[in-house]
Design the sequence.
């Protein structure tokens, strides 16, 4: 079969994919593969389209076929890492991130996604190492500092986590997750020297404003911050709002968490007296 003809079919598949005609591009990629089974990029792009069409098992097979066709098809490792992460197969995802990063060590997005994978696998030290590599690549990346902070906090390095949340917010002041996490840390830190209830209220209020008061999690943090300042009336009212919103959203675990916190606030106690503390 003429090589130019096969390449023309492949390029047409790419063009159709770019304009949203996924079913047509799938047909063309499959035709290309039938004519040239070792065409790694065709397997890879077929995988992308199959995933977009909701055909997950076939997509995974296509990614694996791309690697069988060519070990140099590094982007197949990237695709498989994301796929395995979504399937909560974190060990497999980690292997693919390592393979991808061995070839492209300066890829910032891969470093950050690898860090998130390690956090999901409860490996905070490895997550911190990957986030630090991301910061080495570019020191002004707010998500890199954010994920380093999360990893440090997960690993019990609270003071260091606080510093990284501060750095992340210096670069991106309106990140609701960073605002919330720092507010929670300033409210719940075991070391009194790290707590700052008033600032926690300011940060948590901003996070709630940015999310239009529609996040039970963030409202719960604001309630905890009010309690830390001794304003238990506001803590109770805000925790009730968080609970009611969570009930509306069918978030039963968040409802239970806020009910437990409400019992503490009504007794004049802070979130730190809750047996299991989570933000």
Sequence:
């Amino acid at each position: 079969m003429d090589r130019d003809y096969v390449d023309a079919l492949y390029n047409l598949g790419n063009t159709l994919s770019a304009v949203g005609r996924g079913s047509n591009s799938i047909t063309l990629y499959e035709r290309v593969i039938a004519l040239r089974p070792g065409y790694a990029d065709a397997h890879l792009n077929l995988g992308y389209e199959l995933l977009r069409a909701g055909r997950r098992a076939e997509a995974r097979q296509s990614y694996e076929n791309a690697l069988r066709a060519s070990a140099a098809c590094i982007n197949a490792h990237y695709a498989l890492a994301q796929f395995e992460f979504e399937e909560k197969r974190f060990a497999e995802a980690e292997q693919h991130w390592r393979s991808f990063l061995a070839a492209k060590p300066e890829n910032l997005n891969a470093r950050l996604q690898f860090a998130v994978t390690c956090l999901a696998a409860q490996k905070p030290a490895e997550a911190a190492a990957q986030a630090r590599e991301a910061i080495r690549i570019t020191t002004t990346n707010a998500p890199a500092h954010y994920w380093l902070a999360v990893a440090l906090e997960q690993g019990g390095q609270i003071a260091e986590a606080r510093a990284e949340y501060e750095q992340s917010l210096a670069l991106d002041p309106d990140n609701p997750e960073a605002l919330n996490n720092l507010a929670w840390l300033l409210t719940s830190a075991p070391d009194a020297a790290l707590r700052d209830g008033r600032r926690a209220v300011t940060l948590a209020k901003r996070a709630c404003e940015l999310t239009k008061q529609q996040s039970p999690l963030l409202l719960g943090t604001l309630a905890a911050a009010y309690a830390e300042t001794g304003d238990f009336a506001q803590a109770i009212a805000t925790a009730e709002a968080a609970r009611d919103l969570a009930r509306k959203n069918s978030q039963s675990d968040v409802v239970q968490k806020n009910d437990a916190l409400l019992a503490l606030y009504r007794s004049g106690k802070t979130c730190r007296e809750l047996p299991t503390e989570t933000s």
User: Anything to note?
Assistant: The mean pLDDT is 96. The radius of gyration is 24 Å.
